[in-house]
Structures are given as C-alpha cells and as structure tokens.
Amino acid sequence: MSQWPLWAVLTPGDPVQLERRVRSALMLEDEKEPSFEVIPGSGLYHAIVGTDPSDVGAGFQIAKELSLEVDEPVYSIDRGNDPWAVTSWRHGTLEVEEADPDALAQSLGCPLPGAEQPSGAAANKPLRKAALMEGVRAQEASRVLEEAGDPFPPGHYRFEDTPRGLRVSSETGDIGFADITLSEWLPHVTGYGVAASPSLDVFFVTVLRGGACIGHFSLPPREDSFVPAVGNIKGERSPERILAALDIPAEWFRDE
C-alpha cells in the first residue's frame, strides 16, 4: 500500500474471510480496486488498513461487527485525525483506549505500515469534527457522557444549546465519539456528525439515530459507503450551506 493508512482494524480471523467481509461492508464489487488491505500478522491478530478517509467510520462499524464473532477484543484505529483515536470492542461494546496505535499493533504481531507520520495532506490537514444533536440539551448531554464513561476530561467539549439543537465541538477540533455515544444512550436523538478538512474540500456528514449510521453525505461523492448515501443534508448540498443549515460555523474547521 503506497499511501499512509488513515484507519485500521486489528482483529483475529482468517485473512481471506476478512477481506471478503470488508468488501461486503464497503459494498465493493469483486472487480473494483479496494482502498484497503488485509495484512496477515505473525500471530492471532491481523490488520485491515485503509487509505480513504471516508471509510474511517466503516472501520469503526467493521470492528464492532467482528467483535460479535470472537472472544478477543477487536481494535479500531482512526489515524486521520489529531489526536489519533483507538477503541476496543468486546461483543459489540465500545471502550476508548489510551494507547499508541503503532505500539498496540506491534504488540499484537501485526505492525501497521508507515509508522512514521507522513508529510503529505493527511498530516498537514487533519479533519476536524463537530456535531449537531437534535432532541437533547447541554446539561443532559454532559450527564449522559459522564455516565457513559467518556474519556475526555471535564471542559473538553463546547456544548451550545441552539434553536436547531445542541452544537458539540471542542477547542482541539476533536469530539471523539461523543455524537455516537449520545445517539446510543438517547435513542430519540437525531445527530449530524460532521468531519471536514480546513478548506472543506473533504467533507463528511454522518446521520445518526439510536447509535446507528442511517445516512452518509460525502464530498467528494462516493456510492460505495457502508451506510446509505444521501444526496443532501436538510436540503443542502454544498459544505457551506450544510453547515449553515446545521448552525455550525465553517470557521471552526478552518481554524487550525
């Protein structure tokens, strides 16, 4: 793989079967060149690594599904953002890990390619994240994340109640999995998790309900996402207008 992988899943299993599972999850036809690679490890674990930033959420979901089939933990790694995020899954239950991705992979016998941070666009332009959560207020969201064992310390998040819902952001540009956690714990809530580059040329919106991704908007467009693609968010199709519809300032993503 020539590009630096942006996401990875570390899991037990048969490498051939794992490739088929990931192709199915990403809805890739057999003849289509994949944006991921299964790298056999030296022991129980193998690495699934990908270079497409729009598949980062897919890696998260793939790890969750694979964890339902094995007794050992399955790890999901998001290397497309700063700081990197590492989660473990046991029988479908998530836990955020305080671990270095490369050290973890090395310890499991499946080292990741390109251990050194690249000098290209992925390093220079990390994606920033924010969310709009409809149907919840700041006080309740803070309580839910505390009860769920959210890994970030008090004060990390910036919660803002607006007429359109709760805006969730942070000074670092990283909200971790707060939007997913809130949608899991509050099934009535509809969430819009936004990840974008500073120039908004890479732009993703994940629509969440009940902890599940029910829709995915992507620029550049792609039709092989692991969740149903949607052509607009609240009737809008450009990043600037979508952010305006969600009442999320575009400046948050441009402020590196």
List keywords for this structure.
256 residues; alpha+beta; six-stranded antiparallel sheet; 8 helices; 12 strands
Measured between the Cα atoms of the first and last residue, the distance is: 29 Å
State Rg: 18 Å
Instruction: Give the mean pLDDT.
Output: 83
Large-scale geometry:
globular
What profile does the largest beta sheet have?
Answer: 6 strands, antiparallel
Strand order of the largest sheet: 2-3-1-4-5-6
Task: Give the strand tally.
Answer: 12
- The stretches of 5 or more residues where confidence is low (pLDDT under 50) are 117-124
Helix-and-strand structural type: alpha+beta
Oligomer: single chain
Strand content: 25-35%
Number of helices: 8
Give the helices and strands as they follow along the chain: EHEEHEEEHHEHEEHEEEHH
Helix content: 10-25%
Can you summarize this structure?
25% of the residues lie in helices and 28% in strands.
Plain-language structure description:
- The chain is 25% helix and 28% strand.
- The chain contains 8 helices and 12 strands.
- The strands form 2 sheets. A 6-stranded antiparallel β-sheet has the order 2-3-1-4-5-6, with helices on one face. A 6-stranded antiparallel β-sheet has the order 8-9-7-10-11-12, covered by helices on one side.
- With 256 residues, the chain is of the alpha+beta class.
- It has helices at 15-25, 56-67, 101-107, 121-124, 138-147, 178-185, 239-245, 251-254; strands at 7-12, 36-39, 45-50, 74-78, 85-90, 93-96, 128-134, 157-162, 165-170, 190-196, 203-209, 212-219.
- Strand 10 (190-196) and strand 11 (203-209) form a beta hairpin.
- It is globular and about 55 Å long.
